[in-house]
Amino acid sequence: MSVPAISLLDVSLGWRTRTVLREVSGVFPPGSMTAVVGANGAGKSTLLKAMAGLIAPLSGVLHVEGDARDIAWLPQAASLDRSFPLRVIDLVAMGAWRRVGAWGRLPGSEWARAQAALEQVGLADCAARSLFALSGGQMQRVLFARLLMQDASVMLLDEPFAAMDGETTGVLLRLMQDWHAQGRTVVAVSHDLSLVRRGFPQALLLAGRVVAWGKTAEVLSPDNLAAARGGAAQEWL
Ligand SMILES: Nc1ncnc2c1ncn2[C@@H]1O[C@H](COP(=O)(O)OP(=O)(O)OP(=O)(O)O)[C@@H](O)[C@H]1O
User: Fold this and answer.
1) How far is CA 22 from the centre of its chain?
2) Which PROSITE patterns would you find in this protein's record (predicted)?
3) What is the residue with the minimal CA distance to atom 12 of ligand 1?
4) Domain annotation covers residue 130
5) Domain-located, residue 171
6) Is residue 217 part of a domain?
7) Total domains in the fold of the chain
8) 192 occurs within a structural domain
9) Beta-bridge mates of residue 188
10) CATH code, domain carrying 30
């Protein structure tokens, strides 16, 4: 697996002409595992969307070395519409699109792989259930199963632990740590600083700009957190 490095040079991001994240420079090295933290509105989701290729920088250079299609993105759960008449296994199997094409007929091996992915997230018995009938935590596990199917070498996850109970959080974090151990690059937004300290070797602290980026224990120092809170209207620590 050749894992792309993602590098940013003076990258500013925003919506229309409004800049929400200024002059970000740094690299997510292949195989790194980084938590992106910061207050509401700090620019975390915007950064992930830019890294996923969904929005272009207002200025600066965001460079993906290698195959940009080899990046998987998990949006915030709240932005997903679950009203489609789909079974759980259908959604998981969609993760095979890079191997079979968007409208390709799935071979039996891919259905077997989708079932194995469901087993890995602890939902082996849910394959035939409707998406509509899942709890929030079960739905998040299903989306992780789809990521397992996607088999990408860079995983971008926007608040994967939000509103999850302790058990589901543990399952999801272990999967992410497995991906990291396999040499994939993992970047996840989280508001849970104790989980970030426990589970992520690297952290990127944002507040409309980079406050700190590096080893988690150093990034989440009291001084850096105070600096990140400075501009934010809402307490998040
Ligand atoms: N689609 C959009 N159109 C216009 N402005 C947007 C859009 N998405 C985000 N923004 C604005 O960009 C700023 C940064 O938002 P972003 O979602 O990146 O923050 P965040 O750090 O992920 O926050 P949160 O923790 O609340 O998810 C916010 O002021 C937000 O209103």
Assistant:
1) 21
2) ABC_TRANSPORTER_1 (PS00211), ABC_TRANSPORTER_2 (PS50893)
3) 20
4) no
5) no
6) yes
7) 1
8) yes
9) 35, 157
10) 3.40.50.300
In this prediction, residue 128 carries a pLDDT of: 92
Centroid of chain to Cα 87 = 23
Cβ–ligand 1 distance for 182 under 6 Å, the answer: no
Place of tokens 């950064």: 47
Q: Is 162 in the pocket of ligand 1 (CB under 6 A)?
A: no
**Rounded distance from Cα 123 to ligand 1 centre (Å):** 32
CA separation for the pair 221, 119 (Å, rounded): 39
Mutate to test the pocket of ligand 1, among 16, 44, 54, 190 (most ligand atoms within 8 A of CB): 44
Q: Is the CB of 210 under 6 A from ligand 1?
A: no
Q: How far is CA 136 from CA 93, 139, 170, 196, in A?
A: 19, 5, 15, 21
Q: Say how many Å lie between the CA of residue 21 and the centre of ligand 1.
A: 10
Alpha carbons 237 and 226: distance in angstroms, whole number: 9
Beta bridge partners of 26: 8
Domain that includes residue 1, residue range:
1-69+153-162+183-236
29-65 in b/e form (b: 16+ CB < 10 A) is ebbbbbbbbbbebbbbbbbbbbbbeebebbebebebe
Q: Report the complex ipTM.
A: 0.95
Q: Please give the structure tokens belonging to residue 26.
A: 């740094």
Query: Does the Cβ of 120 fall within 6 Å of ligand 1?
Result: no
**Each residue of 199-229: pLDDT tens digit?**
999 999 999 999 999 999 999 999 999 999 8
Q: What is the pTM of this model?
A: 0.91
Mean pLDDT over each residue of the chain, to the nearest integer? 89
Say how many Å lie between the CA of residue 33 and the centre of ligand 1. Answer: 23
Closest CA to 53 of 41, 38, 31, 70: 70
